[in-house]
């Protein structure tokens, strides 16, 4: 994967985090009542409103988005690859159980909602997985202080 492609995936993933994070942390009741928007409603059908929980989810997404953006801004290819792999892992660790929960709790959703929700939630699993892929870039003189890997 090229560095440009890796950075594009990082920025795309950061935008997902910002969309969910800013809305749920900044306007939790609106998020609960209206997420994801465009006439779909996925949160309020899953139980009573809990401002603390919705704001915490927003903060989690904002934290992931901030770390993802920082990874995208890494100047050296070695640092960008290492950071994107770590960020990818964080997104997968969060997204797999999140997707699994929603996949097991589809009651009350119409067919279009089910498909859209699974695609939406699956996208962060895919993006995170893609960020973990790719060979290590060649080390440069600038990266001499970085830990070296050796074959036994």
UniProtKB/TrEMBL annotation:
Annotated TM spans: 57-74, 86-104, 110-133
Alphabetical keyword list: Membrane, Transmembrane, Transmembrane helix
Domain of life from the UniProt record: Bacteria
Protein name: DUF4383 domain-containing protein
Species of the source: Nocardioides pinisoli
UniProt lineage: Bacteria, Bacillati, Actinomycetota, Actinomycetes, Propionibacteriales
């Amino acid at each position: 994967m090229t560095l440009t492609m890796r950075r594009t995936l990082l920025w795309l993933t950061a935008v997902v985090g910002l969309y969910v994070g800013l809305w749920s942390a900044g306007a939790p009741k609106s998020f609960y009542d209206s997420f994801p928007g465009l006439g779909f409603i996925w949160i309020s059908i899953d139980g009573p409103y809990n401002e603390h929980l919705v704001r915490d989810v927003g903060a989690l997404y904002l934290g992931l988005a901030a770390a993802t953006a920082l990874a995208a801004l890494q100047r050296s290819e070695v640092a960008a690859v290492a950071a994107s792999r770590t960020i990818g892992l964080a997104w997968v660790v969060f997204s797999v159980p999140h997707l699994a929960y929603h996949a097991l709790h589809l009651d009350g959703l119409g067919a279009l909602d089910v498909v859209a929700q699974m695609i939406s939630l699956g996208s962060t699993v895919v993006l995170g997985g893609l960020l973990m892929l790719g060979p290590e870039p060649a080390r440069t003189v600038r990266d001499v202080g970085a830990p070296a890997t050796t074959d036994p």
